[in-house]
Amino acid sequence: MATTFKNLLTTDVASTRTLLNEALPITGTIVSGTYDDLNIKYYAHGMFESVYDYPYQSSSANRIFDLTYGYASNLSSSLHATNAKKLNIYSELALVLMGTDTNGQVRLFDGDGDLAGTTTDKMDSCFFIPYGRLLTKDDIKKGSYTIEFATGVDTFTFGDYGAETEYRVNSPAGEYGILYTASAAVEGTGLGLIYYQAGIVVLSASDNWFGGNQTKLVTGSYSITGACDKLREFWVDNNFQNTTELNSTIYFCRANAAEFNYSSNPTYLSQSQIRVKNEDALANPRTYITTIGLYSPDNELLATAKLSEPIQKDPTNALTFRVRLDY
Length: 327
What we know:
37% strand; six-stranded antiparallel sheet; mainly beta; single chain; 5 helices
């Protein structure tokens, strides 16, 4: 325990923020049947299914994402069989991700993100993919997301192209981007949304890309899990980068020439002689610094930093140690 303390000045402390990105591929072989669906967890309520990277009963399995499907109450009952679960799924996620309008009505998912009242760009029948926080970390990196489906002879790739600079901030769930089916972001052609901080992707099921299965969706021939199973069947590839925000406080611990040249360690002295001076009475006192401690104002030890090797300190040199705390 230290017996000599030195106060840190405001000029000795600095803060910084670093964004770390990790590339994550989710292949269709995992999603669509590598483990004969043993990595797909179904639930009695039938409102969603969960996809794991290994058979879900394994202790090493991790949940990758959930899958579910829902539609808005504004759709004609003649097209949609009444299904309260699908209505509730859509309403709940729309409330969380889109919020309400000035009349208190839940907004529909909007294909171009402008929240305008026109119906041509509304996504009122959607698949939802909430990714596990283990994968997305703090958020999904803008402009890094692509997902590919093969529906028979047709292949569709959705991506948040251009989202590094072109994204929306009018959601209560944070920033979100538009998913397009081409490398160029063309206004009015969005077929999905990606919510970066929430880690949720919304794919329109209203447009005719789902392998000609829209009729079964709108007539209610597919249950929620049936629709999700069909989506997994078409799944080819999925790639994105997550983001971890690393905040750091850096402390510059300075040992001036006249400071920290003696040690309070009982082994430092032998018969009143400094051991490391090798019995040379004329030699300067010296210490070997191995650890730096950061203390509270009332001298309680809060953190320690270990040096990779002892650093010699004597009255002829001054040292500055850079200590970084990450959180």
